[in-house]
Design brief:
Shape: globular
Radius of gyration: 20 Å
Distance between the termini: 28 Å
CATH class of the largest domain: Alpha Beta
Strand content: 15-25%
Number of helices: 9
CATH architecture of the largest domain: 2-Layer Sandwich
Structural class: alpha/beta
Strand order of the largest sheet: 3-2-1-4-5
CATH topology of the largest domain: Nucleotidyltransferase, domain 5
C-alpha cells in the first residue's frame, strides 16, 4: 500500500495530486493569470504565485482524495527541468512536508513524468514504445524501454514546437497563451490555404527557428499588400501553420518508428492537447498499423498527477532522495 503526494511547480501551474496504489484520487491545478498581460511567463511573478497557491492546493488535493496527511507514504516533487524560482517553491514545500511527517522524499524528472502520464489510465503502452514529447520548452522523440529507462533519440536543435505555436500567436497579435487559440481558429480554416517550408534536418532531430522566420516574413509581406490580411484570413493562416508544425512532428515520428521497428506510439506534453496533432496521429494509426496512446487532456499540460504516478513507481523501487536535494533548472534523463 502506497499513497503518494505529488507536487508540480516547474512553470506557472501549481498542482498537487494524490495517487494511491497507482490510482489517481485527486489532481488539483491552480493556474496563474498574472502573466497574461505580459504575453508570457514572468519567472519572479510565477514563483510568488506558487508561494501563495501551494498550501491551499495541497490541502484541496488531500481533501478531494478523502485522506489525511498522515496517510501519505511519500512526497514526490518536480526537481526539474523548469524555472528555478518555481521549482524552489515546490522543492522546499515537499522537503518540509516529508520532514514534518517522517516520510520519504522522491525526486521526479518533469519530462519523464509527462511520459509516465500514460500509466495513469487504460490503455497503457507496452515497453518498448516511442513517445513524442512536445511542449513550449521541449520537443523530443524518446525511446521508452522501462519506467525509468529512457533514451532521447531525437530532439530540437533550436526552438520547441510549442514555442513555434506561441511565437506565431504573437506575430498574429493573439493574446497569451496563444497556442490553444491557434488550435481553435485552425478548426475553422483550410490547412492547404498557405504553404510553409519544412526544415531539412538529418536524422530524427527537429528545427523550428527557420519556420518561425518564414511565418514572420509571410505575415509582414502580406500585410504590406493588405493591412487587414491577418484579420481577413486568420483561420486559414492558423490552419496552415498548425498543419506544417504537425507534419514536421509526424514525419520524424514515422521515421523513428521505422528505424526502431516499434508500433506502440505515444504523445505527451502540453502540445499533445492540440486537436490537430491528436487527429492526425489517430489517422496515422490506421495507416501505419500503430497502437496510438494519447493521454486525457488534464494529463497533457503540467499537472501533479503525472508527478504522483512517477513517484509511485519510484516508491516501489525504493528510489528516495535526502533532504540535501536542490532543484535543477536543467535536468536530463
Amino acid at each position: 500500500m502506497a499513497t503518494i503526494l505529488g507536487i508540480e511547480s516547474s512553470c506557472d501551474e501549481t498542482s498537487a495530486s494524490i495517487c494511491k496504489d497507482g490510482k489517481i484520487l485527486s489532481n488539483i491545478i491552480a493556474n496563474q493569470t498574472v502573466h497574461h498581460k505580459y504575453g508570457g511567463v514572468v519567472p519572479e511573478l510565477a514563483s510568488r504565485a506558487h508561494q501563495q497557491n501551494i498550501i491551499p492546493v495541497v490541502q484541496e488535493a488531500i481533501a478531494a482524495a478523502k485522506i489525511s496527511k498522515k496517510d501519505v507514504s511519500a512526497v514526490a516533487f518536480t526537481r526539474g527541468p523548469g524555472l528555478l524560482g518555481s521549482l524552489l517553491v515546490g522543492t522546499s514545500f515537499s522537503k518540509a512536508f516529508a520532514l514534518a511527517n517522517s516520510i520519504p522524499l522522491i525526486e521526479v524528472n518533469h519530462m519523464q513524468a509527462h511520459i509516465l502520464a500514460h500509466f495513469i489510465d487504460q490503455p497503457k503502452p507496452k515497453f518498448p514504445f516511442l513517445c513524442l514529447t512536445v511542449s513550449g520548452g521541449h520537443t523530443q522523440i524518446v525511446l521508452v524501454k522501462d519506467y525509468f529507462e529512457m533514451e532521447i533519440v531525437g530532439e530540437t536543435t533550436d526552438d520547441a514546437a510549442g514555442e513555434a505555436f506561441d511565437k506565431t500567436a504573437k506575430i498574429l497579435n493573439l493574446p497569451y497563451p496563444g497556442g490553444p487559440l491557434i488550435d481553435k481558429y485552425a478548426r475553422e480554416g483550410n490547412h492547404l490555404a498557405y504553404t510553409f517550408p519544412e526544415p531539412q534536418i538529418q536524422g530524427l532531430d527537429f528545427s523550428f527557428s527557420g519556420l518561425k522566420t518564414a511565418i514572420l516574413y509571410f505575415i509582414r509581406d502580406n500585410k504590406k499588400l493588405d493591412e487587414a490580411f491577418v484579420e481577413n484570413n486568420l483561420a486559414d493562416i492558423c490552419a496552415s501553420v498548425q498543419y506544417r508544425i504537425i507534419t514536421i512532428l509526424l514525419n520524424k515520428l514515422k521515421k523513428a518508428a521505422r528505424e526502431y521497428n516499434i508500433s506502440d506510439i505515444a504523445i505527451a506534453g502540453g502540445v499533445s492537447a492540440n486537436s490537430g496533432l491528436r487527429n492526425i496521429l489517430q489517422e496515422a494509426a490506421g495507416q501505419y498499423n500503430w497502437n496510438v496512446f494519447i493521454p486525457a487532456f488534464e494529463y497533457c499540460t503540467d499537472n501533479a498527477a503525472m508527478i504522483a504516478i512517477a513517484g509511485y513507481y519510484k516508491f516501489l523501487a525504493r528510489d528516495f532522495v535526502g533532504q540535501d536535494i536542490s532543484p535543477l533548472a536543467r535536468m536530463s534523463f
